[in-house]
TrEMBL record:
InterPro entries: DDH_dom, DHH_sf, DHHA1_dom, Oligoribo/pAp-PDE_c-di-AMP_PDE
Domain DHHA1: 235-306
Domain of life: Bacteria
Gene Ontology MF, one: nucleic acid binding
Native source organism of the sequence: Tepidanaerobacter syntrophicus
Top-level taxonomy: Bacteria, Bacillati, Bacillota, Clostridia, Thermosediminibacterales
Protein name: Phosphoesterase RecJ domain-containing protein
The DDH domain, residue ranges: 19-153
Length: 328
């Protein structure tokens, strides 16, 4: 249970007063949960802490304690800017230089392709989530209260699919147990995060399932979502989350791909794998990244062209691996 660079982190904490806690655009449970847990912990330590996510917070995460504190733009320069769950600076959605907003940059992440852009980098690709790293950083400094615990719990269960994915470790299960000891109600959090579906999201799911196609002997399952489908279903973009799992869960499928039309010539691509394909390597070919079993990229092409080039790369990855199990 040791964190590299804990000493330097403690030194930075001790000698600075104001902190900006930031995470990536297109926020998910881990980015929001890790930002809020660290923000609340720093406040408990008597620091000024401002959480920033330059994007809309999805409705379903608005139950998280402290979410109203999050601002959607950077304001003043802090002593320290802490980036969470973001493999590179661009993921923060900043147009300006990151140095405009922090004298010291601390980069806390669990993506294995992290660009190590911080003055201090606390990057552990074996961690289930950024929230898990936050837990280890703060556990000996403050008494973790229920509000902080719910945020870390949400980080871990969203990034591990409720402790089902291959990034579920004994450590993250122990942390979940600690958080339940503190007072987190697993059924309450699960209901907020996984079981509250809007009618519009079900309508969107129906449209997306209609686009399902299977390739390479049913080893690849692909779906797409166009802007028109969002309009017809009246779904919001955030409601596309989780749809890719319907493709991934088909028996025999190794790689699932979901294409989302962001603009006429910008396509967002989500990639998931089940057993042996490293989808982060496929995403990296298109300047994206992620993890072994979950990755993504943005392709500056209309959705049909994006489908063609990415599916080619997925087929090539399947052929490359040749079915040899790639160990984690
Ligand atoms: Mn994460």
């Amino acid at each position: 249970m040791s964190i590299a660079n804990l000493g330097s982190f403690n030194e930075i904490l001790k000698s600075n007063k104001s902190f900006t806690i930031a995470s990536h655009v297109d926020p998910d449970g881990d980015s929001i949960g890790s930002v809020l847990s660290l923000t609340l912990a720093l406040k408990k330590m008597g620091k000024c802490a401002e959480p920033v996510i330059i994007d809309k917070i999805p409705e379903k995460y608005k139950f998280l304690p402290g979410n109203k504190l999050i601002s959607n733009q950077f304001s003043s320069r802090s002593d320290v800017l802490i980036s969470l769950d973001s493999s590179d600076i661009n993921r923060l959605g900043l147009n300006e230089d990151i140095r405009d907003y922090g004298n010291i940059i601390v980069n806390i992440d669990h993506h294995k392709n992290n660009a190590l852009f911080g003055d201090l980098n606390i990057v552990d690709s074996s961690a289930s989530s950024a929230g898990e790293i936050v837990y280890q950083l703060i556990k000996d400094k403050i008494k973790i209260d229920n509000d902080i615990a719910i945020n870390i719990y949400t980080s871990i269960i969203t990034d591990t699919g409720s402790a089902r994915y291959s990034n579920t470790t004994p450590l993250c299960l122990r942390i979940l147990a600690d958080l339940v000891d503190i007072g987190v109600k697993p059924d309450y959090v699960s209901r907020q995060v996984f079981e509250k579906r809007t009618l519009s999201s079900i309508k969107l799911l129906k449209l997306a399932l209609d686009t399902l196609e299977l390739l390479e002997n049913n080893k690849i399952a692909a779906m797409y979502i166009t802007q028109e489908m969002l309009e017809v279903s009246k779904a919001m973009e955030e409601e596309t989350e989780g749809i890719i799992n319907y493709a991934r869960e088909i028996d025999g499928v190794e790689v699932a791909v979901l294409f989302r039309e962001k603009e006429k010539s910008v396509t967002k691509v989500g990639l998931r794998s089940n057993e042996w394909v490293d989808v982060s390597k496929i995403a990296e070919k298109f300047n994206g990244g992620g993890h072994l079993r979950a990755a993504g990229c943005i392709v500056e092409l209309p959705i049909n062209q994006a489908r063609a080039v990415v599916l080619n790369a997925v087929s090539a990855a399947l052929a490359d691996n040749g079915g040899i199990l790639c160990k984690e």
